[in-house]
Design goal:
Length: about 250
């Protein structure tokens, strides 16, 4: 009971820490996605002048530790410019690091679009922006979502390291809870449940985006069908689903 009493007494601080973790995860995830689109498109470009700088940036941030990037942004960068606050440093480091990984997912997904689709856009004399917006990217979007989901969950867990620059996020508050309880209750129970619930929200949210993206391409059920409690029967081509009706729901025609 002492552990639960300590948990209740520190609940406001734990919530503040979790809220900070949520802010870091959402803002950094959004910025990482923007960077991933920019560098992913540039890395897959046939133009060397775009591809080379993108590859250098991607490999640099993928090849160096997030911890080192945090220290560099917080302690070294101020030697050459203004001091950034801890929250900005945390968002910047997470965005750059995971944006570099996500850029590879974007590049790979775009290059995975069938060659015939690219040839069709050329035959229709589409501009680069038009064919990317209407033909190529919608197909690549459905392909990259599973990888982006995994990276966003990793970003959530990676955000726990920002306490080293002075941010009292969820992991920091869990460590404070451990001082008045024990490591098992604080980390293996409270921390495990907290991070699991946050990861579950991300996973389900991204899953719904994937369902919608595939449905728009005619490759799966709609969001309404997925969220419906009514059973569906997958028939026909294109992966569309249909609810059983009439005699079919009663064992088929007599």
């Amino acid at each position: 009971m002492d552990n639960f009493d300590a948990l209740i007494s520190r609940a406001p601080l734990l919530w503040d820490g979790m809220w900070l973790t949520i802010q870091l995860t959402v803002i950094s995830g959004f910025l990482a996605f923007i960077l991933a689109i920019v560098f992913g498109l540039a890395a897959g470009s046939p133009k060397f002048i775009l591809r080379l700088p993108a590859r250098i940036i991607i490999e640099f941030f993928r090849g160096t530790s997030l911890l080192v990037q945090l220290f560099w942004l917080y302690y070294v960068l101020p030697l050459f410019g203004p001091q950034l606050d801890a929250f900005t440093v945390g968002v910047a480091a997470l965005s750059l690091n995971y944006g570099a990984y996500a850029a590879e997912a974007v590049r790979a997904s775009i290059t995975s679009v069938p060659k015939a689709q690219w040839e069709a856009t050329t035959a229709l004399s589409m501009s680069w922006s038009h064919k990317m917006r209407r033909i190529i990217f919608p197909q690549a979007w459905a392909l990259m979502l599973p990888s982006l989901t995994n990276l966003w969950v990793h970003l959530l867990k990676g955000s726990s390291i920002v306490y080293i620059v002075g941010l009292s996020e969820f992991t920091f508050e869990l460590l404070q809870l451990r001082r008045v309880t024990d490591w098992f209750f604080a980390l293996a129970i409270t921390g495990l449940i907290g991070y699991f619930l946050l990861a579950l929200v991300i996973t389900w949210g991204m899953h719904l985006l994937e369902v919608r993206a595939k449905f728009r391409l005619g490759r799966g059920p709609s969001l309404k069908e997925v969220l419906s409690l009514k059973p569906t029967l997958h028939v026909g081509t294109g992966g569309r689903s249909m609810a059983p009706t009439g005699n079919q729901s009663q064992g088929g025609p007599r």
